[in-house]
Amino acid sequence: MRPRGFTLIELVIVIVILGVLAVTAAPRFLDLQKDARISAVNGLSAAINDAAMLSYSKAVIAGAENSPRVVAPTDSNADTYPSIETNLGYLELKYGYPESYAENGLGILDLVDLGNDDFSDSDWDVCFSSTLSNCNSSNSSNVRVGFGIADTPTKRCYVHYIEPGGTNNPSETNFYLEHATDEC
Hints:
Blueprint: H1 8-62, E1 84-85, E2 90-91, E3 93-94, E4 97-98, E5 125-128, E6 142-146, E7 158-162, E8 176-180
Antiparallel strand pairs: 1-2, 3-4, 5-6, 6-7, 7-8
């Protein structure tokens, strides 16, 4: 019996079929990244909401839910404000909810796991700013966390947390939380 291999026509047909399958399947696999980013943003939004609510519960127990500001104790202010301690450290609060940017203690982002303490090794972009048109790392009562917002601050793939009594939320004693996933 003589060994028999594939003919050239059979090989071409197989290559064409594999090419058609690759062209039709590739867009579906590429779209999985968008779905993953949307799910991550939705999950982060829920985590931030839960962290804020648990912090508020802790503030109510300590009697600090109506305080316009609760800061982490230092040598100079130890008796000025009530302090709220957790197993992670002291919370800095406004009206019982975590601050966006905490100078001495813990803020809202310290209560959720974004990968690294200084966010440098994280896949997330962190923007402290009172507007959606820029992204800087200065002290702000607003923080957005998302994908691609450091390079394109107006990109709508983020969670936005605004502390009570802060810029864009000055008269409120409750935090504001939104998330956008239009451009993930």
